[in-house]
Design brief:
328 residues; seven-stranded antiparallel beta sheet; 47% strand; mainly beta; Immunoglobulin-like; five-stranded antiparallel beta sheet
Length: 328
């Protein structure tokens, strides 16, 4: 058995062992498509999880895992499992490294894994399904930085099969339910997600960039009984907004996900499809705005009466124009 085959076998074994399953759980190949193989884990006759893996032949592999509670993406290679390797990994898609982000990918067995709850999906997995290539860059103790890249051809189809491997089994086991009387609500085009280190990236709503090209993202935080929109970025990973004449900077905040459109504010009336980004302590609605200040696109809050886009800048609360409002 060659080194690559040994690595592949140990990698799959380590991943399965890391899953919280009993000794009675059995994992077996379920499906395959192109370079991908799909495995299903069954315990007591119930499908507990499904995961797909792809090995490129250069002693590295990519894995996608789904179960009823969370969904994960992971990769492995000779250097990725070295003891003491930093869990922070730089990730970018296709050749767009300018849009790279830093995410936490701790070791699970021999895999570097990024995991997100199914109750609060953050959109990163959508990028895997709709891009042609992914690259990971991380630090190996004593060897500097190492980069691994994977083609994503066929990933969309295999991700769908992995979801179906779990969801179809659950639907078959669930009792039949009557159709709801009222139609299901339309899914929102945006959502607030609690920030955690490494989340900044292309799946978030951006107001634009700083003069040096660093992206500015929309954030919001609770403060003095209100929920106030502002801005964040990789320069601090903190949320900044204006309040009471000062710039307020918080570590506990939310970031906005979705796809929006910035629209110039005509007068003071807020467009009907503007995003409601928060509220004052007295209940007055706040909307998300942006303004160009000397080549920097800065994000803040707006409501009639403020006189412009209210932001935190340089320790002070300032109001600037002309204003653009985020709409969907």
């Amino acid at each position: 058995m060659g080194c690559f085959k040994l690595l592949r076998g140990l990698g799959l074994l380590a991943f399965v062992v890391a899953m919280p399953l009993s000794a009675q759980a059995q994992t077996a190949e379920y499906d395959r498509a192109g370079p991908w193989k799909l495995f299903r884990t069954v315990e007591g006759g119930k499908v507990e999880a499904c995961h797909a893996e792809m090995f490129t032949g250069t002693e590295q592999g990519l894995i996608f895992d789904h179960n009823p509670n969370y969904t994960s993406i992971g990769f492995m290679g000779i250097g990725s499992a070295v003891d003491g390797a930093d869990s922070k990994v730089e990730i970018w898609f296709d050749e767009d490294r300018l849009a790279a982000e830093i995410i936490e990918m701790p070791l699970e067995g021999m895999w570097r894994v990024y995991r997100s709850s199914n109750d609060m999906p953050d959109g990163l997995h959508d990028l895997f399904a709709n891009r042609s290539r992914v690259s990971f860059r991380y630090q190996v103790p004593g060897d500097g930085n190492e980069t691994m890249s994977f083609p994503l051809k066929g990933t969309n189809a295999m991700m769908e099969r992995t979801f179906a491997c779990v969801q179809t089994a659950q639907a078959a086991a669930a009792p039949a339910q009557a159709a709801p009387v009222q139609p299901a609500p339309v899914q929102r085009a945006y959502d607030w997600v609690a920030f955690r280190p490494g989340m900044l990236g292309p799946r978030l709503v951006s107001a634009g960039t700083m003069p040096d090209g660093m992206p500015v993202y929309v954030c919001a935080a609770q403060y003095n009984g209100g929920f106030h929109p502002g801005m964040t970025g990789a320069w601090s990973e903190r949320c900044s907004f204006g309040y009471g004449g000062m710039e307020v900077v918080g570590d506990d905040f939310f970031v906005l996900t979705g796809q929006g459109r910035w629209r110039a504010l005509d007068g003071i009336e807020v467009p009907g499809n503007a995003v409601e980004g928060g509220q004052e302590a007295d209940g007055r609605k706040l909307y998300i705005c942006r303004v160009n200040q000397q080549g920097a696109m800065l994000a803040g809050k707006y409501r009639p009466g403020l006189g412009g886009c209210n932001i935190g800048d340089g320790g002070s609360e300032v109001t600037l124009g002309p204003v653009e409002i985020l709409t969907f």
